[in-house]
Amino acid sequence: MKILQKRIIEKSSDYYNRHIRIINGIFHPACQMTNKEIEILASFMSLHKELTKDSLFNTQARKRVMADLNLIPAGLSHHIRNLRDKGHIFKDERLGVLKISDYLFPEDDVQNYKFQLVRGK
Asked: How far is Cα 43 from Cα 54, in angstroms, rounded to an integer?
């Protein structure tokens, strides 16, 4: 079998965006993210940990993402709701905060992928 390989080096700010774009294609079509949803999710994931230590979606984090992506509060809320509906964001009932599903977080420095495509009969 022919194995396709590609090493991609991204600057820190684009690392999460590229990762989400790579894995987005393997989701069921109803769960795939739009370009804007990917940008928003990647922006939250790339925020400095000091800013998001209590909650990834806190007020300061939301203001930063809105400013970076030129969004209004209603637009950001709409995209966050869509990401919740698709299962990529969920509410941690114990802590009462929104969280990003673990499968969306890449490793800190290097993320490897292994996909297998099988043609059925």
From this structure: 17
55: phi > 0 → left, psi -120 to 50 → alpha, else beta; which?
A: beta
The DSSP code sequence of the chain is -PPP-------HHHHHHHHHHHHHTTS-GGGPPPHHHHHHHHHHHTS-TTTTSS-TT-HHHHHHHHHHHT--HHHHHHHHHHHHHTTSEEEETTTTEEEE-GGGPPPSS------------
Share of the chain above pLDDT 90, in %: 68
- pLDDT tens by residue, 19-59: 999 999 999 999 999 999 999 999 999 988 887 888 889 99
**Residue 58, CB half-sphere, CA atoms under 13 Å: how many?**
12
- Per DSSP, what are the bridge partners of residue 90? 99
